[in-house]
Write a structure and sequence with these properties.
alpha+beta; 5 helices; globular
Length: 157
């Protein structure tokens, strides 16, 4: 998605774990390039350290069909997934997150600098959305708490 600043647009790319709705990787840059998406995916891989093959769903932007994107997927044992054109359901979780971010934090705001926007979005994701924002799809728990309780239930077996 994009965020308005007085310096110009700031683009945000996120990787969301569909199990818990946690934002596990994100990146912000002044241009919408393959690097923007790759940095978000790299952050997710670093944070999660997947052991097996993981499916990564993306929309059909040129960033996701580039050779760099495909090479990164292959090197990290990730399986790319794109739906056909016009099928918005596959990207609904990401679009829902962007809608929440804009409604709950950004609203009609125009940040003075890209750095001010970066700082505010960081705060929203890491200090509110992941640890505290409740989701009806996750038993009305935050993404972090939902994962914690799931992990705890596995160790109790």
């Amino acid at each position: 998605t994009y965020i308005r600043t007085h310096e110009g647009w700031l683009y945000l790319s996120v990787v969301i774990d569909l199990f818990s709705r946690q934002v596990v990787g994100w990146s912000m840059k002044s241009r919408m390039t393959t690097d923007l998406a790759l940095d978000a995916l790299l952050a997710a891989v670093w944070r999660r350290k997947p052991q097996g093959v993981v499916m990564v769903h993306s929309d059909q932007g040129s960033q996701f069909s580039s050779a760099d994107w495909q090479s990164f997927l292959k090197a990290n044992h990730l399986e790319g997934s794109m739906s056909r054109r016009g099928n918005c359901h596959d990207n609904a979780v990401a679009e829902s997150f962007f809608q929440l971010l804009k409604r709950e934090r950004i609203k009609r705001r125009v940040y003075s600098t890209r750095e001010a926007a970066r700082s505010d979005v960081f705060d929203y994701i890491e200090m509110f959305y992941n640890p505290r924002r409740r989701h009806s799809t996750s038993d009305d728990l935050s993404p972090v708490e939902y994962e914690r309780r799931y992990t705890q239930s596995l160790t109790g077996v």
